[in-house]
Specification:
alpha+beta; four-stranded antiparallel β-sheet; 2 helices; about 15% helix
Length: about 170
């Protein structure tokens, strides 16, 4: 018996055994289940939760990146009833922003007065003595070549008001 005949007999025996003893009962049961489903039925869409908008309400609070002001309760200044902001006056544009957002970047002078240039609130703004700056009723008292002095009126926490001096120093190019 030659080798080629032996290989041919083995291949024929292997192929004849493959097709005769197959069991497709699980496939047939699945196909019967699919055919039994109603035509055109689609699973309902999942319920989606409506979008709830979020409003950031901490914009007027102290920035978490600045150190808190340490207050000694015993030595703390008491407010005065005579000092209070003028609530009847019309607010200026730069009073809508925290004073920490402003930097002095230069000065301008004309024949009568000296103006300061402050950067912040989306641009560079010209301010003069008597203008207001910041959310704490900060009135500009003095402008010189290197700084702007501002006096803020802040609540003392007990119904009174305190005057708090602030300065914006000239920011030089680095």
């Amino acid at each position: 018996m030659s080798l080629s005949r032996l290989v041919l007999i083995l291949i024929f025996a292997g192929l004849s055994g493959c097709g005769s003893s197959s069991d497709f009962s699980d496939l047939r049961s699945y196909m019967d289940e699919v055919r039994a489903r109603p035509k055109g039925s689609v699973e309902p869409l999942p319920k989606f939760q409506p979008y709830e908008s979020f409003t950031y309400r901490a914009a007027s609070l102290r920035s978490p990146f600045q150190p808190p002001v340490k207050i000694d309760v015993v030595a703390r200044q008491k407010g005065s009833q005579e000092i209070k902001p003028d609530e009847a006056r019309v607010k200026q544009f730069l009073e809508g922003f925290n004073i920490e957002t402003f930097e002095m970047v230069g000065t301008l002078r004309n024949d009568r007065e000296l103006f300061a240039l402050v950067s912040g609130a989306g641009g560079v703004h010209r301010i003069k003595v008597g203008d207001y700056l910041g959310r704490n009723h900060g009135k500009i008292l003095v402008i010189d070549e290197s700084k702007v002095d501002v006096m803020e009126i802040v609540p003392d926490g007990e119904g009174g008001w305190l005057e708090r001096p602030r300065s914006l120093s000239l920011k030089e190019r680095s």
